[in-house]
Amino acid sequence: MRILITGITGQVGYELCRYEWPEDVEIVAASRQELDLTDAGSIETYIAEGRFDAVINPAAYTAVDRAETDPVTAWKVNALAPAVMAEATRKVGIPLLCVSTDYVFDGTKAEAYDEGDPIGPVGVYGASKAAGELAVRTGNPRHAILRTSWVFSAHGANFVKTMLRLAADRPLLRVVDDQNGCPTAASDIAATLARMALRLVADPKAPTGTYHFSNAGPVTWCGFAREIFRQQAALGYAVPKVEAITTADYPTPAKRPANSVLGVEKIGRDYAIRPRPWQEALSEVLSELRLEQRKSPEEPR
Ligand SMILES: NC(=O)C1=CN([C@@H]2O[C@H](COP(=O)(O)OP(=O)(O)OC[C@H]3O[C@@H](n4cnc5c(N)ncnc54)[C@H](OP(=O)(O)O)[C@@H]3O)[C@@H](O)[C@H]2O)C=CC1
Ligand SMILES: Cc1cn([C@H]2C[C@H](O)[C@@H](COP(=O)(O)OP(=O)(O)O[C@H]3O[C@@H](C)C(=O)[C@@H](O)[C@H]3O)O2)c(=O)[nH]c1=O
Ligand SMILES: [Mg+2]
């Protein structure tokens, strides 16, 4: 079985590459050099000639603020590329798995968002991802769109690593306390995508459609930051104070949803996947980061 994976230098793509796949799975890991997602024509040829059994596409334009002033690139990577992939995978009759985001929602709902809730992106990144979803949904019936949120890992850029970096030279961090979501480990997303892909390949009748997956437990960015430093402090590390602020106190180019907690019951029903608490996953990532730090202490993070 041959599976194409994109975005391999990113958080989720990297974890997909190091996932312990069954022996009969051959992973084709395509870097940007091998497959530039802004080049629609090359995507089509790559899939048409690749003899793949499935395509997993975690690659994306993920710079939420930068997308506001670079919408064309964001739309090429997040909307057009998935559209071309959907068409190309449908032509060769294979499933396509794409990763999407909690930022497709407007954040005004008081409870967790379910898969059927109306979307209403408030920024360019969310809008481009929503367009990608629609293209996949309409382009290849054998698809899975996995919406996730607040991704972190030891590898790549994310909120956890930003907090640790800022903590190195600041005694006080100010973090927004009025945006709610669910942090999610890239490794758990990778394991979920792998399980879904294997089932979709093995069983033409396997459930398709849109699924939410995040680690369990809603929190604010401020609460997330405090838990990062609580875990670090418990191991004797010096940590900064974290001050709770409002979104208005922390102006950013892109607007972000005030609530983007995802309800994950559907993936439990259809795929028997039940996420663990994010605190548990965070503890693994923090120890991986400390291990890396010990290996190369001079390397800045
Ligand atoms: N990060 C998050 O907090 C969240 C992410 N998501 C979604 O999850 C998925 C995975 O995100 P994550 O792993 O964090 O993303 P990253 O930002 O860590 O990685 C993005 C990947 O996409 C690749 N990429 C970007 N542009 C191109 C291009 N033109 N051609 C080829 N490859 C390209 C990057 O390659 P290169 O290194 O060369 O730039 C990189 O490998 C994405 O679909 C994202 O929208 C959903 C919710 C939250
Ligand atoms: C660095 C920093 C950020 N913040 C705020 C800004 C923002 O509201 C929030 C998170 O900031 P970030 O830039 O890390 O997160 P952001 O880029 O918005 O993260 C999003 O990325 C995309 C790709 C997704 O799909 C989302 O699920 C989500 O993970 O924290 C502070 O309040 N204080 C700080 O010191
Ligand atoms: Mg960001």
Label this structure with key terms:
single chain; 301 residues; alpha/beta; 6-stranded parallel beta sheet; two-stranded parallel sheet; 10 helices; globular; binds NADPH dihydro-nicotinamide-adenine-dinucleotide phosphate; dTDP-4-dehydrorhamnose reductase; NAD(P)-bd_dom_sf; EC 1.1.1.133; NADP; oxidoreductase
Describe this structure in words.
This protein has 301 residues and is of the alpha/beta class. It has one domain: NAD(P)-binding Rossmann-like Domain (Rossmann fold), CATH 3.40.50. Helices cover 42% and strands 15% of the residues. It has helices spanning 11-18, 40-49, 64-67, 71-92, 124-139, 159-167, 186-202, 221-234, 265-271, 278-295, and strands at residues 2-5, 26-29, 54-57, 96-101, 143-148, 151-152, 172-176, 180-181, 184-185, 209-212, 219-220, 241-245. The strands form 4 sheets. A 6-stranded parallel beta sheet has the order 2-1-3-4-5-10, with helices on both faces. Helix 5 (124-139) links the parallel strand 4 (96-101) and strand 5 (143-148). Helix 1 (11-18) crosses helix 7 (186-202), helix 2 (40-49) packs parallel to helix 4 (71-92) and helix 6 (159-167) packs across helix 8 (221-234). The radius of gyration is 19 Å and the shape is globular.
